Amino acid sequence: MKNWEAMEAFVEVVQQGSFSAAATKLGVSASHISRLITQLEATLGSTLLFRTTRRIRLSEAGELYYQHCRDLPSALGSAEEVISTLNQAPIGPFKMTCATTFGERYIAPVMNDFLLAHPKIELDFHLTNRAVDLIEEGYDLAIRMGAMKDSSHLSRRLCDRVEHLCASREYVNQHGMPHTLAELNKHNCLLGSNNHWLFQQDGQRKEVRVTSRWRSNSGPALLDAVRKGLGIAQLPDYYVADDLASGELVPLLTQYQYPYSGVWLVYPKARQPSPKLQNVCDYLIEHFKAHPNFAQ
Question: Does a structural domain hold residue 45?
């Protein structure tokens, strides 16, 4: 800040009553204090202090200037103390978002535990399958699935997930199984939020565009439709792992299954991520390292 050092020196001279006492308080020489005051008076075009060998006295301009700036050094100290406290322990509002089902099932319980350990955090947790604008809508953190496409944000990998193409046993008995990706257009495909399914072919990532007479942005609704034999769907492991293990759902085109896609912690770019953000991200990542349903 322009003139800040000189203003601080001026305030200390007035409050301490002498140049030498102000110099001792600020840890500089008395001659340095004198130079700062002289420069400040030159900049302002006014005499602030009348100096004698025994004492100092404020001029009219000096009195006015002192009244306006006397509290600024202590205010700066208070501001620095607040930031120091903030850096030591997470405190205050934190706004985050996640896809609905994943958020309800996996993120909300972890964040509730986090709040127990950090009672000064004020959490606003918004569950939606819509890709929110982090900057425009004021979010500190978003949890997103799949490939990262927005390079304007920073991200950390939370965990992996595997997408399974599957159908009910009744559907397979009635309609048969697809054996190639090209055969998908002969089957009843059920869509979620995306118009494409993710596969791997000849070691390369491949997205296959799918058309459907049934679609929903709800994972549980999609899973129910698959279970009832309405068609084929691609769903992540945390939806269908139990059904695949029990045999209620049948895996399809496993030779084309993509190894895994990511779940990401996404946040706006900043010079220094806040302690709240760092603490939340670290806590979530540590939890998912130990979670049995997710690969790392």
Answer: yes
Q: With a cut of 60, say whether residue 197 has pLDDT above it.
A: yes
Residue 96 structure tokens: 């985050």
Closest by CA to 267, choosing from 287, 292, 284, 289, is 284
Give the DSSP letter of residue 257. Answer: B
Q: How far apart are CA 152 and CA 100, in angstroms?
A: 24
Using an 8 Å Cβ cutoff, are 266 and 153 in contact? yes
Place of tokens 């304007």: 152
Per-residue pLDDT reduced to its tens digit, 257-278? 998 788 999 998 865 567 889 8
Contact status, residue 240 vs residue 166, Cβ threshold 8 Å: yes
Instruction: Say how many residues make up the chain.
Output: 296
Pair (39, 67) in one structural domain:
yes
| Dihedral over alpha carbons 238, 243, 249, 252 (to 10 degrees) | 40
- 294 belongs to a structural domain: no
DSSP-H helix ranges across 137-274: 169-175, 219-227, 237-246
> What token pair was written down for 124?
């606003």
